[in-house]
Amino acid sequence: MLYKSLWVIDDTDINELLLNYSSTQKSYTEGSFIYQQDDVQKYLHFLMSGRIKVNLIDSSGAEKTLAIHEPGSFFGETAFFDQHPSFTNAQVVKDSVVLFFSKDQLINLFKDYPEIVFQIFESMGRKIRLLSFQVEYMSFLKIEQRVAVLLLSLFESFGRVCSINNSVPSENCTFKGNCIDGQHLEITITDQEIADMIGARREAVTKAINKLKKQKLICKHKRTICCPDLNKLNDSLSES
């Protein structure tokens, strides 16, 4: 089963389909780079398995995470489509298998499955929305507010209603026996990844999340987050 992320095409048969159109499949170990800043991109990439982060690293070594990719994700679109050197790195967080697609291979794929074009556009739109959100809000909010606003943005696109009254089967609930009514975030994300996305230290993000948990505005189990009431989480922004 594919995990949802900001760039996932939500189709459990996508791996098998795409294998028929790509002639290149590569395996990468944790910590390695698939591409780096200033590389010219001749291929569009698709993550078959593993976990990848897309980031920026400045001359001092400071890192800014822009995206976390899980299986089912296309990535590297910007440099591939505009044919300018990449302004980001794609670094492996967990051993990964990646498919490579040339321009001609994508044209063949799009001819046979034109609906995938719209799915890619949708995922790119989500990426633009999230990056615009980071630029617009991250410089002006306190860390607690940054965390809350980021979570609200993610819940808007990737929240799933879960209920202890079995509107969602309990076996599909990440919280297992501790399920509560509310929105469950269908993205796995760590405190460090949140910190990298909002430009803060991990310790400060963990403190902010613990504060939200203490206020019962969110619940967190490992890398999965649930919000009992999105309106209350939104209202907390004006109280911070």
Can you offer a commentary on this structure?
This protein has 240 residues and is α+β, with helices and mostly antiparallel strands. It has two domains: 14-135, Jelly Rolls; 140-238, Orthogonal Bundle (Arc Repressor Mutant, subunit A). The protein has helices spanning 14-19, 77-82, 103-112, 115-137, 143-158, 191-198, 202-214, 230-235; strands at 24-28, 33-35, 44-57, 63-69, 73-75, 89-101, 159-162, 182-185, 219-221, 224-227. The strands form two sheets. Strands 1, 2, 3, 4, 5 and 6 form a six-stranded antiparallel sheet that branches. A four-stranded antiparallel sheet has the order 7-8-10-9. Strand 9 and strand 10 form a beta hairpin. Helix 4 packs antiparallel against helix 5, helix 5 (143-158) packs across helix 7 and helix 6 (191-198) crosses helix 7 (202-214). The longest helix is centred in the middle third of the chain and has 23 residues, at 115-137. The chain is globular. It starts with 13 loop residues before the first helix and ends in a 5-residue tail after the last helix. Mean pLDDT is 81; it is low at 1-10 and 165-173.
